[in-house]
Write a structure and sequence with these properties.
10 strands; 342 residues; tRNA N(6)-L-threonylcarbamoyladenine synthase activity; 5-stranded mixed β-sheet; binds 5'-O-[(R)-(carboxyoxy)(hydroxy)phosphoryl]adenosine; binds zinc ion; Nucleotidyltransferase, domain 5
Length: 342
């Protein structure tokens, strides 16, 4: 019954999230419970801690999302859940909750891809005519480019060969002594710094393909901040507030240059008239500015996910509506997949 909304669940990493989305794609509620405080002292997500926190939070988050939307099980048309990619133990909590609700309420189950959902966050803000498009998902776990003829069958056309962009922000923040999660704190420190103060590489940027690397850039920041073990005699400026700001600004500028440069390659390769951008790093202001400049220059329509739907959330799993409209429901014995589904 497509006059009734879908309840969507997302638990792939360290956010426990639920949302209720109507058939016209309006978001009736979107609740996100972040575990950042639990993982902060480890400087990254600890899978075992993440799964256990999901177990604690999943039902309160679901209840809050349903209360806020003013719906009960009888008012829903389907249960959607992110089944891939992500941490297996985390995914299993959301998937088990979704299967249970689908079985008990007699509703169909819909499996959603987390990365295509990140791109679908753009659809929630910009409307259905954003497809066909070229897509970039830039998050803590992924830096992927897609050719998207439609919302469901987006094809992966390139990705990082090592760290994801968000992971590089998180690692650079850690080595500069900035708080977790690193993206927002690097962005804040960078505001007081000079992006040209520290010369840093733009690895693989001038290659005509979509391969990209962030691990070498992160190492260059480490050497600039703490000294290079290969040339221990070279002087290193003290890591005071000004130097930290300059390193943050220079790293951010290099990362943005690389991402924007590869978006230009992806736009040329796909020939699509629109660029969709989603994922946590899409919240970065310097990246938004760089992408705006690129798309103005190439006369491409730029659709960046709204701020509240950049980091992980369940509203973006409203992608389930597209899958429902294709009649592609998931069986109650469906499994989770940790890796990319192409
Ligand atoms: O999409 P997301 O919530 O989780 C994954 O699917 O990975 O992305 C989280 C990532 C983290 O690495 C975080 O540091 C980064 O997004 N991030 C940012 C900003 N806000 C979040 N990176 C750069 N600038 C930001 N403002
Ligand atoms: Zn994500």
């Amino acid at each position: 019954d497509s006059s009734k909304p879908i309840l969507a669940i997302e638990s792939s990493c360290d956010e426990t999230a639920a949302a209720v989305i109507a058939a016209d794609r309006s978001v009736l509620s979107s609740v996100v419970s972040t575990q950042a405080a639990l993982h902060e002292r480890f400087g990254g997500v600890v899978p075992e801690i993440a799964s256990r926190a999901h177990v604690e939070r999943i039902l309160p988050v679901l209840k809050e999302a349903m209360d806020e939307a003013g719906v009960t099980g009888a008012d829903l048309s389907a249960i959607a859940v992110v089944t891939h990619p992500g941490l297996v133990g985390s995914l299993l909590v959301g998937v088990t909750a979704a299967k249970t609700l689908a079985a008990v309420w007699g509703l169909p189950l819909v499996a959603v891809d987390h990365l295509r959902a990140h791109l679908y966050a753009c659809r929630l803000a910009f409307g259905e005519d954003i497809f066909p498009a070229c897509g970039l998902v830039v998050s803590g776990g992924h830096t992927n480019w897609y050719d998207c003829p439609d919302p469901v069958r987006s094809k992966l056309i390139g990705s990082t060969i090592d760290d994801a962009a968000g992971e590089a922000f998180d690692k650079v923040a850690r080595l500069l002594g900035l708080p977790y999660p690193g993206g927002p704190s690097v962005q804040q420190a960078a505001m007081k710094g000079d992006p040209e103060a520290v010369p840093l590489p733009r690895p693989m940027m001038n290659r005509p393909d979509l391969a990209v690397s962030f691990s070498g850039l992160k190492t260059a920041v480490r050497y600039a901040a703490l000294g290079n073990p290969n040339s221990p005699e070279a002087p290193v400026p003290p890591l005071d507030e000004g130097r930290i700001a300059d390193l943050a600004a220079s790293f951010q500028a290099a990362a943005v240059d690389v991402i924007v440069g590869k978006c230009e390659v992806a736009l040329k390769q796909t020939g699509r008239p629109t660029l969709l951008v989603g994922g946590g790093v899409a919240a970065n202001r310097a990246l938004r500015e760089g992408l705006t400049e690129l798309c103005n220059r190439r006369q491409v329509r730029l659709c960046i996910a709204p701020m509240e739907y950049c980091v992980d959330n369940a509203a973006m799993a409203g992608l389930a509506w597209e899958i429902v409209e294709r009649g592609e429901f998931a069986p109650l014995d469906c499994d989770v997949t940790p890796g990319l589904v192409r």
